[in-house]
Amino acid sequence: MARATDAPEARPHRAAPPSRARLAFLGLCLVLIGLNLRTAFSSFGAVLTEIRASGSVPEWGVSLLTTAPVTLLGVFAPLAPVLSRRFGSKRVLLGAMAVLTAGLLVRPSEWGPAGHLPGLILGTALCGAAIALCNVILPSEVKQDFPHRLGLMGGLYTAAIVASAALGAGFTYPVFEATGSWSSALLFWAFPALAVAVLFVPVAVRARHRRVPAGHVAAGGPGVWRSPTAWHVTLYMLFQAMTSFSVFAWLSPILRERGIDGATAGLMVSASIVLQMLGSLFAPSLAARLWDQRALNVTLAVMTSVGFALSVLGPLQLIWVWIALLGLGQGALTAAALTMIMLRTRHGHTAVNLSGMMQGIGYGVGSLGTLLVAQIHQSTGSFSLAGWAFLAIGVGASVFGYLAGRRRNVDEAG
Predict the structure, then answer these.
(1) CA-CA distance, 87 to 101, in Å (whole number)?
(2) N or C: which terminus of the chain carries fewer CB neighbours within 10 A?
(3) Which bin fits 55, alpha (ψ -120 to 50), beta or left (φ > 0)?
């Protein structure tokens, strides 16, 4: 029996389908965009110890710069459906990549007597806004342009997002060692973003803006806020985000506090995120094949929270085991949460509205995870309590992952 979630979106008129070559190029561009959506976060964490040592950023600035990006993902996510309807999703993606490039260029700049702090704050804000728009639009693009390849494309683009975190964590510190400058290490990540923006220009220029009928906009917009299923998916995303961005921001400092040197800590974080890539590559296909995703969502939530807690509290002799458990769980958990956007909606316009809702609230409130870790460390001088806190967060992820995994569509009443 055909699955309702796999049904193609109804359109007012049938356009000629794009050629396979054009679809392949679009898919490649979406994956390359995904490869740039986490480097801004993981690269900062990779050289955070050096930034602190330079005296460029006070402690309140560290808290701000590790928390604000995720908060901005929540603030700007609800704008994505509005901009997408007005300008077209592909043009919004191109604009977002241009803003991301600008933010990565501004972030390491020095502002005279004010030092690096203004550039770090402004650049981080631009990056957060741009990534928010891309986060929301990418799942709806997959739903719209690859309706019969949701598992494959969902796995590829979520694996690319996770890979971007691995790239930022793994290559930033070697660039710092080669240049002797943390600002040069951060600046490096502007060039891949610029290259992808240029590559995406012809796709955005050729794209035809499909106008959604007013009734569909209304049904897919405010309707998601009244859907229990949409709220379950959103809260699942919220608890996932609390863990995910805390890992990006704090895992390297946690490992270094435990006595691991900077290069080895960067290697461990990178290895963990490479395992996240494997989890995120296969989770969407597995989720799409299952009758429902309750057991999968709960299992991944438990793996992630236990892996993070043991990375903080477990015996250091087994640190590679805890890192592997965290990596596999976190990658698959992130992918499963994003896949819910496609599996719990029938139509592309509903998907973009659900994506805006769940990422707006999920990332906006989920940013409290990074702030929680910062406050715990500032208050106690240690990360130990954070391990216990994320066991509790795992309970929340398990509960709402179970509810979100039930076979119900946001488009349906109740």
Answers:
(1) 20
(2) N
(3) left
